[in-house]
Design brief:
129 residues, alpha+beta, Penicillin V Acylase, Chain A, two-stranded antiparallel sheet, globular, Peptidase C45 hydrolase domain-containing protein
Length: 129
């Protein structure tokens, strides 16, 4: 038997929740609530722009995605994907990209446009126990 697992995104607010399913063979999220009425008040952090930029980048690369391409997308400052809002003392703290078929995970601690991605074996180690 072949079992297909579908990744879902759960958006939760104090009064509501929504489950989003992948479209076009991918799913992405920022701290922008796509499905709820909260979305307008959250845009001070440029999350809507990050969400839209990620969507465009994923559309362009969905059939050729690699960890290297994912790292490049997550390191991009145009479209606020890698965010640094000095006036709010707010920005990207870390970035994670993964190949879920191989459990290959790369993590950048700090802003990914400045920090180097390093292998993170914690998931693989836990699964293989």
């Amino acid at each position: 038997m072949y079992v297909t697992k579908i990744v879902k995104n759960l958006e939760v607010t104090p009064n509501d929740y929504q489950v989003r399913l992948p479209t076009n063979n991918y799913i992405h999220c920022t701290n922008h609530h796509e499905s709820t009425s909260v979305s307008e008040s959250w845009n001070w952090s440029q999350s809507k722009e990050r969400f839209e930029t990620l969507d465009i980048c994923l559309q362009d690369n969905v059939n050729k995605m690699t960890l290297s391409i994912a790292q490049s997308i997550m390191s991009e400052t145009k479209g606020h994907v890698c965010l640094n809002l000095k006036e709010y003392n707010f920005g990207t703290l870390f970035s994670v990209v993964a190949n879920l078929n191989t459990l290959d995970i790369q993590r950048a601690e700090g802003q990914p446009n400045k920090a180097k991605y390093k292998s993170d074996s914690r998931l693989t180690d836990a699964v293989l126990k």
